[in-house]
Amino acid sequence: MLDTFVSIGDTLKEIRETRGFNLQNVALKTNINYTVLSRIETGKRLPTKPQVQTLANFYNYSEQDLIKYLISDKILYEIQNEDFGLEGFLLAEQRIKYGLSLFNDYENLEKFDLKSRRYIGNKAKLTDWIMEIIQSETKGNETFIDIFSGTAIVAREAMKTYKNVVLNDILFSNNIAYKAFFDKSKWDSKKIVDIVNEYNILNPQEIKENYFSKNFGDKFYEKDISKLIGHIREDIESRKNDLNEKEYAILLTSLIYTIDRLANTVGHFDAYIKKPIVKRPLNFRLIQTENFAGAKIYNEDSNKLVRRLKGDIAYIDPPYNSRQYSRFYHIYENLVKWEKPKLFGVALKPEPENMSKYCTVKAKDAFKDLVENLDVKYLAVSYNNTYKSKSNYLENKISMVEIEEILNSFGKTKKHIFKENISKSNSEELLFISKRN
Prior knowledge:
The chain has 437 residues and is α/β, with parallel strands linked by helices. 42% of the residues lie in helices and 11% in strands.
């Protein structure tokens, strides 16, 4: 077997001699110049890839193995006289090993769109329909209030029409995303890209166990990935004094979007899949920011916030069943707050926080209070009528009759049904538009 550390020239010479050919005969049969072959075998020049392929075919030798020797010689040739040659080689090795690429500038790199994240009840497929109805049924383009913004898909669409858009959500992970995507503050893209490049060459084998990996490794995330997540989150926090609020939000939101589809779950963190987790690279990517000068961002209880707001229209899409979003997305909440709380149960959740009244028997009263205190001309209310749910857990806490009763007290109300969905599920997607009396 050939020595792993010999050069391509030494390798070709040994193969030729083993096969019993003289150099002149090889030159004649392969149409490669004799002098060129001689210089290749003595290490005075490197062969081209086509020459290696020709020789591999002539000698009936593994083309793949010969090309490996060629690549090895090329690398050695490039780095042997460089002051930081070895460091450069190790950097390249990490990039190749983990399937990652380093970025040069923000504009030309592949980024996450707002809708890339998985989120229960998001309206990505309904947004066009919702906004078409709103625009046909209402007047005024000053202020659009999205009081339960969630992924902010609807709010983003409203930004095309309205001068001001209010985004609010009680979840810290959603609020940080609004700042990252829409806050109008200036930020240093080169600084952020340089930080991401650092994250993309991290070797998990060189990273110590941390809060995140000890709790979530080999459960919600593969062990090496969980070590990287914890390390990166700690690093973002250590840089906080050197980042402005927008930059800090971009890094945190990009981390959430990067790890979203690496999670060993069905899309939320109420439980993890109890099967071996496939090892994949982290491949940290940034989000595509969409700065909007008219964005007003809040992180408050919606029923308290509406008492201070005024606008043309309020879009309302609260949770209607027992699913508490703060519990379903507890890992993202934990990552954003980074207080490292004690965790409980199989799903490793912290103590309950930001529990919504809309997921309880108090939902009807909360909705009524919200509607009565909104200072707007119009209301647009999304409602999923889960009328054949087999689970009390998924059953709506406010009935359609109750919704209509409360909205009728606000003003004249029209009900719109998303027709494409009627025959495909056990539920109806509805949109109510109410005009104030």
